[in-house]
Amino acid sequence: MPVVIRTLRQTVCQVLQSTACRCRKAALPGLFPGPSPWQLPADANFHSASFSETDQPRVLITGGLGQLGVGLANFLRKRFGKDNVILSDIRKPSDHIFRSGPFIYSDILDYKNLRETVVNHRITWLLHYSALLSAVGEANVSLARAVNITGLHNILDVATEHNLRLFVPSTIGAFGPTSPRDPTPDLCTQRPRTIYGVSKVHAELMGEYYHYRYGLDFRCLRYPGIISADSQPGGGTTDYAVQIFHDAVKNGKFECNLKANTRLPMMYIDDCIRATLEVMEAPAESLSMRTYNVNAMSFSPEELAQEVLKHVPEFQITYNVDSVRQAIADSWPMNFDDSNARKDWRWKHDFDLPELVTTMLNFHGFDTRVAQAN
Ligand SMILES: NC(=O)c1ccc[n+]([C@@H]2O[C@H](COP(=O)([O-])OP(=O)(O)OC[C@H]3O[C@@H](n4cnc5c(N)ncnc54)[C@H](O)[C@@H]3O)[C@@H](O)[C@H]2O)c1
């Protein structure tokens, strides 16, 4: 081997070894963890008490007043105790949410505020839900860039600094038109064309980088479109699959902003929340990767309408296509391959399309048994 290359190699090895020595956390074999940019020197070990696996986690949910956060908090509170799960957002909570458990103001763009929250509440798990979703993000790219990218950097740093277990949801939107779409595997080309998708690929890669570089316990699921009964969607491309139930029950008709045959992966919120807890509780050694696809079903607006019709015989669907949302949907997976999640931590969905439709209509007060009998 030429001397120059050998010398260079030795220097690189020395640098990497000295970096590894300074790291407080156990490293993964063969990787090179070092201190996070926010970690304090070795004499500042008082900074964060480590989380014992026997303790209940102390959970912070950012962006918790969106479509998914409140349901997640309720679920985790039943498991870990009401006071161990703190919901946060920059919006004002309703009286009901405020009374149902701890809520605090937390802006993910304010690092000092985030750090104070983590320290004062002795947080050990951080579930990072703040984001601008696909359609809203395209309407305000600079805010989406700030919240979804700069905000994520704050989250990664505070989680690394305080040895937190960090969950960041990703999305089918992290894929693009050059990704295989039917089905889309975990590892393939990811060239999304929305700021939302770009920011989520960034989150996946940065989280994995922090995991390998600093030992951060980063866990990420790529959710499909999530359908919930008791919370409003936040401006995503799959929102139609929530709105259709409200309108079917209220008016017996629905105007869809995607084409009839636009097939996308979807999941009922109970499955989404359970998947999140399961991956958070999975033993580290069972995780062969840190970012997993999860899926439950895949359908188009016309297939969903057919299923609704079985319960609401007078139901009518019409189409008035929104070109921005349609272009986004046409670049997204039609079907999601989640076989790695099913193999590694035994992911299994409960809700398929018929079950989803019955549950959603029942929630909105529609008696599906009567309708079926008619
Ligand atoms: N809902 C879905 O179908 C879906 C699908 C895939 C992935 N996800 C992901 O799940 C997460 C939650 O989704 P959601 O549907 O609940 O989103 P949402 O848009 O309904 O809620 C996002 C929340 O983030 C908050 N937020 C915005 N800026 C903030 C800031 N600076 N600091 C703190 N909070 C801020 C908003 O106030 C809002 O309550 C997001 O990361 C999203 O990308 C959602």
UniProtKB/TrEMBL annotation:
<feature type="domain" description="NAD-dependent epimerase/dehydratase">
    <location>
        <begin position="59"/>
        <end position="294"/>
    </location>
</feature>
<comment type="pathway">
    <text>Amino-acid degradation; L-threonine degradation via oxydo-reductase pathway; glycine from L-threonine: step 1/2.</text>
</comment>
<dbReference type="GO" id="GO:0006567">
    <property type="term" value="P:L-threonine catabolic process"/>
</dbReference>
<dbReference type="Pfam" id="PF01370">
    <property type="entry name" value="Epimerase"/>
</dbReference>
<dbReference type="InterPro" id="IPR001509">
    <property type="entry name" value="Epimerase_deHydtase"/>
</dbReference>
<dbReference type="InterPro" id="IPR036291">
    <property type="entry name" value="NAD(P)-bd_dom_sf"/>
</dbReference>
<comment type="function">
    <text>Catalyzes the NAD(+)-dependent oxidation of L-threonine to 2-amino-3-ketobutyrate, mediating L-threonine catabolism.</text>
</comment>
<protein>
    <recommendedName>
        <fullName>L-threonine 3-dehydrogenase, mitochondrial</fullName>
        <ecNumber>1.1.1.103</ecNumber>
    </recommendedName>
</protein>
<dbReference type="GO" id="GO:0008743">
    <property type="term" value="F:L-threonine 3-dehydrogenase activity"/>
</dbReference>
<dbReference type="InterPro" id="IPR051225">
    <property type="entry name" value="NAD(P)_epim/dehydratase"/>
</dbReference>
<comment type="similarity">
    <text>Belongs to the NAD(P)-dependent epimerase/dehydratase family.</text>
</comment>
<dbReference type="GO" id="GO:0042802">
    <property type="term" value="F:identical protein binding"/>
</dbReference>
